[in-house]
Design goal:
8 helices; 2 domains; Alpha-Beta Plaits; three-stranded mixed sheet; mainly alpha; single chain; about 290 residues; about 70% helix; Alpha-lytic protease prodomain-like
Length: about 290
């Protein structure tokens, strides 16, 4: 897919997250209040955090696609990783609050009767959020977008939390009311683990990821096809959000003219960009040997 097409799809996925979470937050909040289910009300607050995260992703994608300028010569792609890190922190906070609230309910023995609307709200939340997660994951993989990937995990964490809420409210509806806070506590642990995973990935992105050995090997093979290139080494890869920079040393014949080596370098850059559209910055150091 072309870059502009990927940009449109990425922004559309973020917009779907914003509107989907807005509708789910509103419905679950009303359903939770009407059915006397604090678990569903809490789940609506989780969706509210997802709404804010999706809004951040949308803004981040828009800003990250800005072209390079004098102050940001490598573009603005790292904004996506920053947004992903913010989402990770928000997930960790939500996990803590859910866990703390569940423990307090268990300690104080506060287990209210649950209405059937809570079950309906949880089933709807699971269905919609899992559909949103799958859609966003597919776009994130194609666009290699860390913020969309984080947003997709955010959707899935909400679907998982809704499964826990569904089990809890169903058990509570049929009289086993203690199951509500127990499942909520398990949900908090799952969300916390997801938050740590997303945080680790985006911190690595910000500080510079270790080059993917398979990708480096593919770049080497692609460049060494050129007859003027003897070998390629010192391939370094660094991501700026969904974009990447590659630095490599290319060994050529020392008798080659500067003009010809420059032409070969241009062909090398063109080949790498054709093979890896996400690589937007390529630095080639020519070594005569």
């Amino acid at each position: 897919m072309a870059g502009t097409d990927l940009d449109r799809k990425s922004k559309r996925a973020a917009a779907v997250g914003v509107w989907g979470n807005l509708l789910l937050t509103s419905f679950k909040l009303v359903a939770g209040i009407l059915s006397n289910s604090m678990a569903v009300v809490g789940d609506s607050l989780h969706s509210l955090s997802d709404l804010l995260a999706s809004a951040l992703v949308y803004v981040g994608l828009r800003e990250a696609r800005k072209p390079p300028d004098t102050e940001h010569p490598f573009g603005h792609g790292s904004i996506e990783a920053v947004v992903g890190l913010i989402i990770a922190v928000s997930l960790a906070i939500i996990a803590y609050e859910f866990g703390r609230g569940s423990v307090l309910r268990l300690i104080h023995g506060h287990f209210p009767a649950i209405g059937a609307l809570a079950i309906v709200a949880s089933i709807l939340s699971i269905t919609v959020k899992e559909a949103m997660a799958r859609y966003t994951f597919s776009v994130a993989r194609a666009a290699k977008s860390p913020s969309l990937q984080a947003n997709a995990w955010d959707h899935r964490s909400d679907a998982i939390s809704s499964v826990a809420v569904l089990l809890g409210v169903t058990a509570a509806f049929f009289g086993v009311r203690i199951m509500d806070p127990i499942f909520a506590l398990g949900m908090a642990v799952i969300i916390g683990v997801i938050g740590v995973k997303i945080g680790k990935e985006n911190i690595e992105n910000l500080i510079g990821t270790v080059p993917d050995p398979e990708m480096a090997s593919k770049i080497r093979k692609l460049v060494e096809v050129a007859p003027e290139v003897k070998s390629v080494h010192k391939i370094r890869l660094h991501y700026f959000g969904s974009y990447a920079e590659v630095d490599m040393h290319v060994i050529m014949n020392p008798s080659m003219s500067i003009e010809k080596s420059h032409a070969v370098t241009d062909r090398v850059i063109e080949k790498v960009k054709e093979g890896f559209p996400e690589i937007t910055f390529i630095n080639v150091h020519v070594e005569p040997r």
